[in-house]
Amino acid sequence: MEPQVSSKMKKVLLVINCIILAVGTCGTPLLMRLYFIKGGNRIWLSTWLQTVAWPINFIPLAISYFYRRKINININNNNNTKVILMTPRIFVATIGIGVLQGFANYFYAYGAAKLPVSTSGLLFATQLAFTAGFAFLIVKLKFTSYSVNAVYLLTVGAVLLALHSGGDQPEGEPKKEYILGFIMTLAAAALSGLIFPLVELIYKKAHQAITYTLVLEFQTVYCFVATIVATVGMIINKDFQAISTEAKAFELGETRYYNLIIWSTIILQFYFLGTIGVIYSASSLVSGILISVLLPITEVLAVLIYGEKFSTEKGVSLALSLWGFLSYFYGDIKESKKKEEQSPETEMIDSKACTP
Description:
Protein name: Probable purine permease
Largest sheet: none
Subcellular location: Membrane
Family: Belongs to the purine permeases (TC 2.A.7.14) family.
GO cellular component, one term: membrane
Membrane topology: Multi-pass membrane protein
Number of strands: 0
Strand content: under 5%
């Protein structure tokens, strides 16, 4: 049996997963857009790349297995370590999440193919509002003044960017395709906003201890299922046969085409690993807020890499997003201190101190 993670260790995991999520969130739209602007046009392939690197999870899972085995031998003199922690009930729920994620990935890939990074990013940032709404309905999330303030500021920042998004339709792209890209990206944001609270609900309803190993198993299974969904789409669309032809016609060259595909799969897996880890270490809302606050940073990177214009609206949005991010975590720190002061251990110590 794996020992429960202490609150201090959870904070360490939260920091690590925030870094992983930051790399995945910022790198994903930039790499996907690079694929499309340099000659790539396979949306199902782009969907497939988002989760096909799921076997990477076997590395931390193997480390966790040997760690648990060592703990059991040292503490219980028992080397019969249970390899799989996931119950059949969680397994079935994970398959459902994987199917939803597969379609969310397709919607996101479609938006990335039709919209500039800045536009698709600001539209996807609306997932914060969807996450907050679904978290309230599904996991009965309690809002504090700080979390409400954070959602408000981040939403205002996204609206400011949206007001500036007109006129960025790529040359030669039909208006119909551009509008469909808007709709698909919003659909991806809505599905992501639904998935986050559903994952949190699974954690809460599971009749077993939720360990980080179980979280890794969960992510491995649902990314595998999402990959199956994308694989079916690729087979129907004959994307596998088109890869070699597309690579030869790629503007950056055939070698860089395959390098881009490999690095895309790794960075994209960072996004999913970080998302699930943050939900485990904190909550679905924290995951949504972190993704939203990284939006302006992605905007800055798009300006530096692709030469996109950094307007006043984007600067104001960046300031509002950072303000909202700090507001939420300041409130979270205050709530944590309040809970520690009211903990049973504190009350017991106080009662002992008062005993003559």
